[in-house]
Amino acid sequence: DANLAETKGKFIGVYMDAPSVNFFLNRYLQSQGMQLSDFRIVEMPTGALTDKFIAGLFAGIVSYDPDALRAERDGKGKVVCSSASFPGCIPEGIYARRDTLVSFDKADVVKLLKGIVRGAEWIHDPANWAEFQTILNESAFAADGPYSEADLKEMIDAVAIHDLDTLVKRNEPGGGLEAYLRQLRQFLQDNAMLAREFDPGDIFAGAYIGEALEQLKPAPPVVVDEPEALPPIPAQTNSYDFEEIQ
Length: 246
Hints:
Elements: E1 11-14, H1 19-31, E2 40-43, H2 46-54, E3 60-62, H3 67-74, H4 98-101, H5 106-124, H6 129-140, H7 149-157, H8 164-171, H9 176-190, H10 200-203, H11 206-216, H12 242-245
Parallel strand pairs: 1-2, 1-3
Helix pairs in contact: 2-3, 5-11, 8-11
């Protein structure tokens, strides 16, 4: 529960000393008037990281659940932010080498992405929450759980699982994901961490997810024009010439 500003020069532990994690950590530090270079960054597995935090050896750590939950409870820690606090700062996705990607049928890749998006939509449906809890405890957290409904909700709320509309905006040309790559590149350059130059627009293969999202968009409603009202039929008055009838 210490104020990080009072611990400058000390250690902050991270579960992975990688650009994405350091970018996230820097976003938080900047929001507090600090920067990455104010601290000494140490990488170690999340379990050991949490143990050392509980022992008081780190001023702060960047971890993930369920170890982050353990650090909060057993280490009397305080969650100051999560990836949901800075939307888009730690995007999850699928990465592939160019030569590997082109070896797959594009239609198959699109089907895979559609399945992932449908899974995210399934998670957003409150009617599936009970089943989702079972999946989390029996699969994702099988080695550590089971966790209570409150614990699971706290862990899920720490991440942002995008709905279809948000995914469209994030993955469109010049959208959130491409913007993230540009911000990440600038961060690496500013911190002398850019090992190799890259063009964000060149490494983002948005056509695959773009096609998947387009196929998943709901069809627009069909509007049926009301037929024009027909003019009223005038009353007919029949007159007969009885002489002609006879």
